[in-house]
């Protein structure tokens, strides 16, 4: 049975670069080039593998990003996704997790997927709530924190991380599943994949196209505000010694001093 | 003026209350006149502990029907809020189940949610939450701007859990409305990967290893040292992602927050996402061969050296003492 998979992919400022907040809005500055959130590369890979295992089907990406950004989407398309839906609109500036979920849910509804994949949390926002909010808005079941996912006919079997180990959870499709980092090994886009990605369809939509109420989105719809951002209390550096073969003695002495041994 | 009522979601680990929920109860007691707890499953075994930490009542959604707590508990809480019993705030622990509950609740009530909270204070005009950003180098304070119960998702170890000596919480049950498809995920079985020794987030000593260990086999050094110090073994994400150790060992932004008496970082560079999970430790010792490693900037004692040399010496010396 061919399977239609939607993977939510967030395009984010490179976490290795300098991250900063806009002093006025306190939002993360997303002016420069955005990249595919590494956390979502696992979802993309998982989606591609599951579609293959199901004997066909395809992976559609869904992303909400400012300035019609597509560079992160192109990376995921180069990995093998068939196409993408991108929601980009000035009205979305300052949108919170729930607003993001409303936008993504509306976009996903158009794709009518059997399975929606997302990461457990994004690298820059890390609220970890967007996928579950999407599930609730779409009236779908969800399984979060998956460390193993297999499809079995019209059901998905998941090993879900728990405090003590893991639960085996079964969920009928359609469903929302979030995957943890390391769940699969994301493939590197091949040269052929990169070339092919350039001509794959990216449907760009606005808030109006989705029929959403702009008042419930953007900074106004977020119903929260940043009060202040201040430097945290710094922790003073202590003593640094170079190991000359006796460094372990210093550790022992320190542990003795704080009465651990 | 203190808040009237706060609801606290009680997550459970096996048949015990998750410590983070006790931390939230203690904080809620400080902030509000009345604290009520919400949980699932049989409440009788935990009513005493929940009461001792400040809850006057414990509402339980009894039957999950084999499903996950998220949709069921969120639906029950939402129904209560919509029936007019709304509290001033709802505190949810940032656990696997807690996030599911908060996300679903937020969508059901069409209420925003604040996550990754590490501090809460009453500004006199509503609650203000604190968030550690950029690896904990800056503190961001935020608040909700409209009326209605705020949903606050709080990280473990943000507050001390303190029993106040009050009696058991009064228990009652909350019904969950019909869930339709949202409740369709079913738990088939639970698997425990119990490690011996104290739990990572409760141990007084945490010894963590990173990529500097060189290979998976060398993690044994971390486990040996942890055992000798009666502590727990932790890890950086680099070696979790590499498959050397299970995710349950991970310390940091996407792992556990730890605040032991002493944290020993071995072959860990000190990325911001790692430090945010351990910089609250009372004492920090770091062993790293690169003297420029950022971890040294927060270490009380730093040893510039090779973990493959220092750790075996340390282990041998401790074994001799034992
Ligand atoms: C969104 C996001 C979330 C993240 N969450 C987490 C998280 O929760 N926890 C986490 O830990 N990381 C997290 N990370 C990853 C983090 O950014 C770092 O990549 C990771 O912490 C690095 O792990 P490490 O210190 O073991 O490895 P490296 O950074 O590679 O450091 C290895 C260190 O070992 C030293 N070394 C090498 N050989 C030796 C030797 N023989 N003896 C002594 N020292 C030696 C090196 O000098 C170096 O400093 C996250 C990243 C992102 C983007
Ligand atoms: N703007 C977005 N576009 C696409 N997917 C997103 C977006 N925001 C969040 N997600 C998905 O939801 C996951 C969790 O995000 P968060 O709730 O921000 O931690 C992400 O890893 C993505 O898979």
Shape, per Cα inertia axes of chain B: elongated
Distance between the termini of chain B: 55 Å
Shape descriptor of chain A: globular
Helix tally of chain B? 8
Integer-rounded radius of gyration of chain A: 22 Å
Structural class of chain A: alpha/beta
What's the rounded overall pLDDT mean of chain A?
A: 95
Number of domains in the coordinates of chain B?
2
Low-pLDDT regions of chain A: none
**In which range does the helix fraction of chain B lie?**
25-40%
Largest sheet of chain B: 9 strands, mixed
Encode the helix/strand succession of chain A as letters. Answer: EEEHEHEHEHEEEEHEHEEH
How many H/I helical runs of chain A? 7
Looking at how many chains there are and whether they match, the oligomeric state comes to heterodimer
Structure write-up:
The complex is a heterodimer of chains A (261) and B (322). Chain A has a single domain (3-221), classed as HUPs (Rossmann fold, 3-Layer(aba) Sandwich). Helix content of chain A is 27%, strand content 30%. Chain A contains seven helices and 13 strands. In chain A, the strands form two sheets. A nine-stranded mixed sheet of chain A has the order 9-8-7-10-6-1-4-5-11, with helices on both faces. Chain A has a two-stranded antiparallel ribbon with strand order 2-3. In chain A, helix 3 (97-111) packs across helix 4. Chain A starts with a strand and ends with a helix. With 322 residues, chain B is an alpha/beta fold. Chain B folds into two domains: 3-183, Rossmann fold (3-Layer(aba) Sandwich), CATH 3.40.50; 205-321, TPP-binding domain (Rossmann fold, 3-Layer(aba) Sandwich). Chain B is built from eight helices and 17 strands. Chain B has helices at residues 19-31, 47-52, 69-85, 96-109, 219-228, 237-241, 272-275, 307-321, and strands at residues 3-9, 12-13, 16-17, 32-40, 57-61, 89-93, 113-122, 127-133, 138-144, 150-154, 170-173, 186-192, 205-209, 232-235, 262-266, 283-288, 301-304. In chain B, strands 9-8-7-10-6-1-4-5-11 form a nine-stranded mixed sheet, sandwiched between helices. The longest helix of chain B is centred in the N-terminal third of the chain and has 17 residues, at 69-85. Chain B starts with a strand and ends with a helix. Bound molecules: flavin-adenine dinucleotide (FAD) and adenosine monophosphate. Adenosine monophosphate (AMP) is lined by residues 8-10, 37, 39-40, 63-64, 97, 100, 104, 118-119, 121-122, 125-131 of chain A.
